[in-house]
Specification:
The structure holds two protein chains of two kinds.
Chain A: H1 4-9, H2 14-24, H3 30-39, H4 42-45, H5 50-53, E1 63-65, E2 72-75, E3 80-88, H6 90-95, H7 97-113, E4 118-128, H8 134-154, E5 158-165, E6 174-184, E7 198-203, H9 213-216, H10 237-253, E8 257-262, H11 267-279, E9 282-286, H12 299-304, E10 310-315, H13 320-329, E11 333-341, E12 345-350, E13 353-359, H14 360-363, H15 380-383, H16 395-403, H17 412-415, E14 426-428, E15 434-437, E16 444-451, H18 454-458, H19 460-477, E17 480-490, H20 497-517, E18 521-527, E19 540-549, E20 566-571, H21 580-586, H22 597-612, E21 618-621, H23 626-638, E22 641-646, H24 652-657, E23 663-668, H25 673-679, E24 685-692, E25 695-700, E26 703-709, H26 710-719, H27 722-725
Helix pairs in contact in A: 7-8, 7-10, 8-10, 10-13, 19-20, 19-22, 23-26
Chain B: E1 3-7, H1 14-24, E2 29-33, E3 44-47, H2 67-77, E4 81-85, H3 87-94, E5 101-103, E6 111-119, E7 135-142, E8 146-148, E9 159-163, E10 175-179, E11 185-188, H4 206-214
Parallel strand pairs in B: 1-2, 1-3, 3-4, 4-11
Antiparallel strand pairs in B: 5-8, 6-7, 6-9, 9-10, 10-11
Classes of the chains: A alpha+beta, B alpha/beta.
């Protein structure tokens, strides 16, 4: 019998322990209990999210691999497929920002590698508190250096992502990393099959680092969390680079590798159990065979270690020596640590003696799935109302303030620390969705990540729809047809009914939008317990999306292209609910975000057709900061001004800084106005002005409220983050 | 013109250089693993960018001990062309094939972006396709590009590329690329292979590879 305290240390409840014991039919020993605890942790077991995640649409004609593997895979053409996955590394980054973020990159890259794909791009979605806080600057700069330190070294370009600074993330930053890879032919699987086949551990040696990292990720952050710093693993990007090359070389030269699995959270335990579970077999592992970094490690430590840069392979019996020389050439361990057995158990041996044995299903299908107890927060109605819309006196000042806010301003301070060009495929980054070419192919890839905390906090269903829609719209704006979604859902403690309600509503909204836009969710990750003593993070879904651009002629970018072009607005700008303006002026997030799914579907369809027919010269999505900020960005990036006049019945605050979606700014040759108006006749379209050489002037109903030169805009926009990080 | 691209553990721009040489310039090219020592038939050795051995010590400090490096030295002594890009440049200075050293960037941060460069010499096998005094754009991507040498006068005549306008990393006298005295070994921090195609934003880098091809 175990005490409550003993169980608490490994994040298990007494009920869970008793359930596990009754399934097992006996008392688990220490090793077995440790294995159960990590596999039953939220991080590995998805206890609180499993049922809700079933809402996502996951299939489509081009989906080769949906959720359930190391990564999702879609077909690009008859030869190539694309693997994609996103994952969080929030808690480790809160405690140890450099290593936390670095190992986040390492883990997601191995997930892609496990599909047999060469990683071609990384993206990071990051959220921190406000930059006037020195702790925030420490976390921010550590996380960025960690991503740079790891990603740059392994030679995978970091080509995009997004960034937000808001109070609720002060103590619990969000670090979500996405990786995309390319593979030829059939994706690999993380499965073990064929009785007698070998389980081979490749890569780094196993040390005492990261033990119980998965259980740590399944707890709220407290002031004592810093003591869990040893639960954060240390990354070795050099080792990872060798692992990438060795795995890809082995796959190219031999077909003896049957299954590949990343060894991440819960180490050998989860990787071997997952492989066995997918293959419908059992595994036997002798911990004595595991290459160890330090002496005297116990079987429990070896089975639970989260040492990085390791992978588990299932190799056809008798063909191990075909593969070994490749790993030896790259200076990596290649250790046969066990084999596939018929009996569906994980059997752990030490020096030939059995030290633990658990049924596979106890650690997989039988992990409890909880029904969430949900409750709509009472304050919701209250925060959805903006009692008094603040009257702006100085529109120029407000526009500059928003542009200079780290939430809108240039992120070059961040991406210049990332090698975003290695592999020589990067065509465009930093303005809207990133664009990669695919060597030897006519088509290109559009890749984006988008996240929404504020909108979801105010209305999770609408916010959930908006995050999917915005991501798709960002792809459409560069001429890419969205193909698939990977996501990362960051929430507080799911045992809190209000958090649970937010979670369920967000997923419902996301699912509905994904279904309407016909984009499958092919994998993702849930991160709960993003709470600290003073804050619960906003309910924050992050979406990663990949789309296909037909060819180089049909790329569209957001910046203004030439003087004299006519500027149109598609959709109806307005609604200050959830806007950055309200947050800046009132100091709190308020109002109800507004989103029109029917319009979204029509707009995306027409816009993509227009771009593919080369009707328009630029397209820019309107989001954070509203139309004012979006127009200014087009000006800054294109180094051209605007002469705008908007006829409207709404107040200027709403039109310029409202964040209703969908709204898109397009420019067209002035002699094509009729054609354009005809083309978009089924959705709201409004001619608002012209691209001019220098000045940025905006009139509302003929009254000039903004007249700035582009240099002033540029200065504000480019220094928003830098001024804090000098 | 036969190119040989040396691959150290941790090299990560090898495939990018390979693509430019084979697919853009249609020249014969092969990879050479760092444990090999045979450079027979090779006309130009490329030491590409990356993080050889993780650069956990000084960048390039371990790679210089790889078996291939003694062959590269012999090859250079006989007048063979050697170009070291970024980490390759760092390895060449560590190996003593080029003078000076590359320290941490002044900002102590990794910097990846386009910079302007001025061509100081076009009488080398690596820069004959440029005009002397021409301003070109190429990307840099490094942690350690801060060129330093005790006695600047010793290399004055060997400077081929300088940062123009703004100095991104604190390099002494804005030095971005130098050759050895003989002029057959060239090291540069910018990545010409990343700007050899219009689709990537600049073709200035291709002219370095074209110069090499033209030299033979």
């Amino acid at each position: 019998m175990r005490t409550k305290e003993e169980l608490q240390r490994i994040s298990m409840t007494l009920e869970e322990y008793q359930l596990a014991k009754s399934i097992l039919g006996r008392e688990p020993n220490d090793l077995e209990l440790g294995m159960i605890a990590v596999m039953w942790s939220e991080h590995c077991g998805y206890k609180h999210s499993k049922k809700t995640l079933k809402l996502f649409p996951t299939t489509g004609p081009h989906v080769l691999q949906g959720p359930g593997e190391n990564a999702g895979v879609i077909k690009l053409d008859e030869e190539l497929a694309l693997a994609m996955k996103m994952e969080s590394h929030n808690h480790p980054s809160a405690i140890e920002p450099y290593q936390g973020a670095a190992t986040g990159v390492g883990g997601i890259v191995r997930d892609i590698l496990a599909m047999g794909a060469r990683p071609i791009a990384l993206l990071d979605s990051l959220r921190f508190g406000l930059l006037d806080n020195s702790k925030t600057r420490y976390l921010f700069s550590g996380v960025v250096s960690g991503i740079a330190g790891y990603g740059n070294c392994i030679g995978v370009p970091t080509i995009g992502g997004e960034l937000a600074f808001e109070k609720p993330y002060t103590e619990n930053p969000l670090v979500n990393v996405m990786c995309v890879g390319l593979l030829k032919g059939k994706p690999k699987s993380g499965k073990a099959v064929g009785i007698g086949n070998s389980l081979v551990l490749v890569g780094a040696s196993t040390g005492r680092d990261g033990i119980h990292g998965a259980t740590f990720a399944s707890l709220e952050l407290t002031s004592e969390s810093i003591e869990r710093r040893p639960a954060v693993q240390a990354g070795d990007p050099f080792m990872e680079k060798l692992l990438i090359e060795a795995i890809l070389e082995a796959l190219e030269k031999s077909d003896a590798i049957i299954g590949i699995q990343d060894m991440g959270a819960a180490g050998i335990t989860s990787s071997s159990v997952e492989m066995a579970s997918r293959g419908g077999v059992g595994v036997e592992i002798d911990v004595t065979m595991v290459p160890q970094r330090e002496k005297g490690m116990t079987p429990e430590e070896i089975m639970l270690s989260e040492s990085q840069e390791r992978m588990l392979l299932c190799i056809e019996k008798g063909r191990e020596e075909e593969i070994r020389p490749i790993f030896e050439k790259w200076g990596l361990n290649f250790a046969i640590i066990g084999h596939v057995i018929e009996e569906r158990v994980v059997r752990v041996k030490e020096k030939g003696k059995i030290v633990g044995e658990l049924p596979i299903d106890l650690l997989t299908e039988k992990v409890p799935a909880y029904d969430l107890i949900t409750k709509e927060p009472e304050r919701l109605k209250e925060i959805q109302i903006i009692e008094n819309i603040p009257k702006v006196e100085d529109y120029e000042g407000v526009l500059l303030r928003l542009l200079g806010s780290p939430n809108c301003s240039s992120s070059s301070w961040v991406y210049q620390q990332y090698d975003h060009m290695v592999e020589t495929n990067t065509v465009s980054i930093g303005t809207g969705a990133s664009i990669l070419r695919v060597k030897g192919k006519p088509y290109l890839l559009g890749i984006t990540t988008d996240g929404e905390g504020r909108y979801c906090y105010l209305d999770p269903y609408i916010g959930g729809m908006m995050v999917v829609a915005e991501s798709a719209r960002n792809l459409i704006c560069v001429g890419a047809e969205p193909l698939a979604i990977t996501d990362c859902l960051n929430f507080g403690n799911p045992e809190d009914p209000e958090v649970a309600w937010y979670f369920v509503e967000t997923v419902k909204g996301m699912s509905e939008c994904a279904r309407r836009l016909n984009i499958p969710v092919i994998g993702g990750n849930v991160s709960f317990y993003n709470e600290s003593e003073n804050y619960t993070v906003y309910p924050t879904p992050i979406v990663g999306m990949v789309g296909k651009i037909e060819n180089i002629e049909t790329i569209c970018t957001p910046e203004f292209k030439k003087e004299g072009d006519t500027i149109y607005i598609l959709g109806e700008p307005g609604n200050l609910g959830g806007s950055l303006l309200i947050e800046e002026l009132l100091g709190e997030v308020k109002g109800k975000p507004s989103f029109n799914i029917e319009l979204e579907v029509k707009l995306e369809d027409l816009l993509l057709k227009a771009i593919r027919s080369r009707l328009i010269n630029s397209a820019q999505d309107v989001s954070r900061g509203g139309l004012g900020v979006a127009l200014a960005e087009c000006s800054i990036w294109g180094n051209l001004g605007v002469d705008i006049n908007i006829e409207t019945g709404k107040i200027p605050e709403e039109v310029l800084f409202g964040e209703a979606q969908p709204v898109v700014i397009i420019t067209v040759d002035s002699d094509r106005e009729k054609e354009i108006e005809q083309f978009f006749k089924d959705i709201p379209i409004k001619k608002v002005g012209k691209v001019i050489r220098n000045n940025f002037t905006v009139k509302i109903n003929g009254n000039e409220i903004i007249n700035l030169d582009i240099e002033t805009l540029k200065k504000e926009w480019s220094s928003g983050i830098e001024r804090w990080m000098k | 013109m036969n190119f040989g691209i040396v691959v150290f553990p941790g090299t990560n721009c090898d495939r990018d250089c390979y693509y430019v040489i084979r697919d853009i310039l249609n020249q014969p090219v092969k990879f050479i693993w760092h444990r090999e020592n045979d450079l027979k038939g090779i006309d130009c050795v490329v030491l590409p960018g990356g993080f050889s051995y993780g650069d956990y010590l000084r960048a390039g400090a371990i790679a210089r001990f790889s078996p291939i490096m003694s062959s590269v030295r012999e090859f250079a002594d006989k007048g063979g062309l050697v170009i070291g890009i970024c980490n390759g440049f760092q390895i060449l200075t560590e190996a003593g094939l080029l003078p000076g050293a590359l320290g941490r960037n002044r900002s102590l941060r990794f910097i990846c972006r386009y910079v302007n460069l001025i061509i100081e010499r076009n009488d080398t096998p690596f820069t004959s396709e440029f005009e002397k005094g021409e301003i070109v754009r190429m990307p840099i991507a490094h942690n350690e590009g801060n060129y330093y040498i005790d006695d600047l006068s010793k290399v004055e005549k060997q400077v081929v590329l300088r940062y123009y306008g703004e100095n991104p990393n604190g390099a002494l006298d804005n030095i971005a690329g130098i050759v050895n005295e003989r002029g057959n070994v060239f090291g540069l921090m910018p990545h010409p292979e990343r700007c050899s195609e219009k689709i990537l934003g600049s073709e200035d880098g291709l002219r370095i590879f074209k110069s090499i091809v033209r030299s033979l």
